[in-house]
Design brief:
Layout lengths: L4 H18 E2 L15 E12 L5 E5 L5 E6 L4 E12 L2 H8 L3 E6 L3 E9 L6 E11 L3 E5 L5 E6 L3 E4 L5 E7 L2 E7 L2 E6 L5 E8 L2 E5 L5 E9 L2 E4 L3 E6 L3 E6 L4 E9 L2 E5 L1
Parallel strand pairs: 1-7, 3-7, 3-9, 4-8, 4-10, 9-11, 10-12, 11-13, 12-14, 13-15, 14-16, 15-21, 16-22, 17-21, 18-22
Antiparallel strand pairs: 2-5, 5-8, 6-7, 17-20, 19-20
Amino acid sequence: MKNHTTRLVILVLFATTIFLFNCDGDNPLNSRYDVHNTNYIAVEEFLFEVDVANQSLFRLTAVNGSISITGESNSDSIIITGERRVGSESTEDAEEHLELLEVRVQELTDEIYIRTIQPNETYGRNYEVDYEITLPDGFMIIASHVNGSVTVGSINNTVTVSNVNGQIDLNDISGSAIASLVNGQIEGDVVLPSNGLIAMSTVNGNVVLNIPVNTSAEFEASRVNGSINIRYLDLQNEVITSTSRRGILGNGDGEISLSTVNGNIWAIGF
């Protein structure tokens, strides 16, 4: 059985440190005091449209909020819409600090890179950005988040998502799918290509994977506390231990690795 544990650990550690890379240390406002509540919210919507040239990778790093990424066939542009929000103890303070919450778009040679910029210290304020993104369905996706849900759908390429607190949903993915999470559930609907990889790992939460019944892969699922459930899949040469199940689907061309510490695992054929 191929071993991708190192890769998953790196993804989780990367997600836990994303905040440091997304934050902007320059803070021109007098913000160095704790606010007592976040009852007042300042909001601003944003819209970016990027024409695709030779790029084939979309990368997003975010901190707080929700993320939705959807592929569209025959599209030649990336549309990024959403909302920036700051919650503080007064309307004036929230509006002032909204200026420090930025969505930055970079058009690089082979990728489009989007990231959230916010202060290193929040002093009790809430900084949130919700993203709604549509892009060509053949793009490779790399999304890193800290707090909130991440949904990626209708992509015909490799999808990699790391998150700390929230949920990861991968819907209608035709390609390799790599997802790591600390607290929350991972759910995927994936068509695995030949020699592709599905690797889904969470610490506290469930893993639910839906794959075609004719999927060909080496399969392994492991947990510490919880259960492992396999339905409508013909797992050959199965080896069962107290904490794991492994075997071969089809000819074993690709690889599927599912793991959780505290939670349940479902692998379901359709």
